[in-house]
Every structure is written in structure tokens, then in C-alpha cells.
Amino acid sequence: TRVAVMISGRGSNMSALIEAAKDNDFPAEIVLVVSNKPAAAGLDIARSHGIEAVAVDQKLFSSREAHEEKVAEAIEASGARIVCLAGYMRLLTPRFVARFAGRMINIHPSLLPLFPGLDTHRRALEAGMRLHGCTVHFVTEEMDGGPIIAQAAIPVRPGDTIANLENRLLAAEHRLYPHALRLVASGRARMEGARAIVDMEEA
Ligand code: GRF
Asked: Where are any strands of DSSP class E within the chain?
């Protein structure tokens, strides 16, 4: 299955997906990386792996819809059937979400439905959480609100700071996202209405 990855920045989750997809047994190949920011470091990383990487600079478009149309065209031209959001920091319109319904997934750095949105590590610490985590979910119109495919949890340790919690969680994200993409690409996770059906054999 051909996969496009959408990024806005450093692209460490994108890199984890690229590395995982190098395995011959992996049921997906990364064929395109798209960034809404031309300066995203992940673009050059993708190119260094021989993957087509394009910036569709949101500043060059008069509307969100026009920008998304260009992004969608690039994805469709690549033949990608699955879209992975990996640190893509721009909200998507319902129209774009509908175009890739059941085929677009996102990784979020919290145990959803706790802490949708930004600043998740600070908010988890402030809430006194003893566990923090990350979630891969199907993308729906509701930001960070779609059906959950897979999650991983890490302990919050005494003395944890935002920075070291973020770093430890990132390592968990890099394991979780390839696992979740494998489930979706192989048909073992799919969206049915408002729910995700996940075959747990491999979970
Ligand atoms: C990650 O924490 C991801 O969960 C969130 O944005 C961050 C992106 O980091 N959605 P990277 O660009 O993958 O390194």
C-alpha cells in the first residue's frame, strides 16, 4: 500500500515510518512526504532516503481550501491510498477529511481523549498524571477526536520535566506509529462509522 506522510517540522515520526517501511515484510511503502512549511527539516530527511518530498507552502495560497486542494492533488498523483499525519500542525477542513475518510491517521502525544490539542506534556504534568502516552487514531472532523487505533503509555516519574517527558514519549511514538500503520495497511484496523475495528492478534 502506498502511503503519503504530512509533516510541518522535524519529522521524527515520519523517519520512524520510513525506517519501518524498509522492512520487506512491512505492508506499506512511503511514496511521498508533504509539508505545509518549506523549512520543515523532515523534507530533507525524506529526500535523503530517496523519497519524493514537497513543500506546499501555505503562505502562497489565498485560502485554506486552495492550499488543501494542492496537497490533495499531490497525494493523489503519488498513488498513495493512506495518509499519515506526523506533526502536521494545520487544521484540516471537513472537505479534506472526507476525501481521505478511513484512510487518514494521526499520532497525538497524549492518551486521548485526555488532552487533545497543544501542550500535552505540560498539561499531563499539571494534572498529576502517573501515566502519559500517545495515540494513533483515524482522522475525523473533530481535532484529535477520531476513533482510536492504538495507544502506548509511559510512566510519569518524580522530577519529570516537560522536556524529558516529551523525549521519553517520543521514543514510544516512534514504536507505536509503525505498528498502527501496519494494522491499517494490512486491513487489520479499519474505521466503521464512529468506531475503529481493530484485530488485536498482533497488538
Ligand atoms: C509529535 O509529538 C507528534 O505526536 C505530534 O507532533 C510531534 C511531531 O514530532 N503530533 P515529529 O515532527 O514527528 O518529530
From this structure: 2-7, 29-35, 52-55, 82-85, 104-108, 131-138, 148-155, 189-192, 195-198
Domain boundaries, the chain: 1-100, 108-203
**Per CATH, is 1-100 categorized as 3.30.460.10?**
no
List CB contacts of 159: < 8 A, sequence separation 6 or more. none
Output the residue whose Cα is nearest ligand 1's atom 1. 87
Query: Model confidence over 158-182: pLDDT tens digits?
Result: 999 999 999 999 999 999 999 999 9
CATH tag, 108-203 = 3.40.50.170
Topology match between the domains 1-100 and 108-203: yes
Question: What is the pLDDT at residue 133?
Answer: 98
Instruction: Count other C-beta atoms under 10 Å from residue 141's C-beta.
Output: 15
Instruction: Report the nearest atom of ligand 1 relative to the CA of 9.
Output: 12
pTM over 0.90: yes
Q: What are phi and psi of 84, to 5 degrees?
A: -110, 120
| Catalytic site includes residue 174 | no
